[in-house]
Amino acid sequence: PPPSKPTYYPKWMKGYHDIKYKFAGASFPQGKRILSLRTAGAGLGTCLSLPNVGYNPPVAHVMHFINDNSGNVGNDNGGKVYEDLAYNVPRRFESFWPQAKVLSVQTNGGDMKEDGSKNTVLLSPKCLVSGDGCSSDVNPSLHLPASRVAMEFDGPTRRGGRLTQSSDVTMLDHSIQDNDANGECYYTAKSYSQYNINQDLQVFYKEITSLERMNGSGGGIAGKIRVAAFLPRYVKDMDATSAGGAGDAYDEDEAVAIYDYKFFMKKTDSTKVL
Predict the structure, then answer these.
(1) pLDDT tens digit sequence for 32-51
(2) How far apart are CA 246 and CA 235, in angstroms?
């Protein structure tokens, strides 16, 4: 599916932040009977927004947000802040799944021209864990505003042993709301398609995030994230056909699983960040 334009954030998100997640619950609005391993979040690494649903990472990891003054993403970016996907996604992935190790990352950074049309280069060169291919001179688009990220990682499998695996996540659409009178709150909703190549698994989910800048002692940003997993009928029917039966009745336009987390972000010194 074609990616949407990147998402932009308030100015107070700029910089490096320590972020700590806490699981707040899961629910299954249409019952557990219709769930399968083709549901986003049912398996490890099948939802890059929350790579290990139910797990509480014991320590914070670092996130990075960059101020864009390049004019790479249309005429309305106005120097807004965007998420550094190449930096953030691998760190969140390893924080939620410590047994896995990210080997490479790519983004579609800079994929939008100033008039909003598409460039021909879909993904940046691979940035390897060794550092090869990561410098700005050989990979100038890696950390530009992006709405697609692809990773290779080494991780355990259900059958035992370890395997080099791949995930490719595309943001299909997004909306934002930041009309708080004091400019201290921000809300975003993003729809994703994720393809895990080794499992031939495509999943769909929507991520809803709220951010509130705290002005009390020590400051920081309090947030909530909700991921709603969807199961298109054709996916469920494939499972039913392979099992030799008929699929359960359900509404494919409604979420089949909902995962909730709370998190807290605190600015950190960039000189201390690797």
Answers:
(1) 988 888 899 999 999 999 99
(2) 13
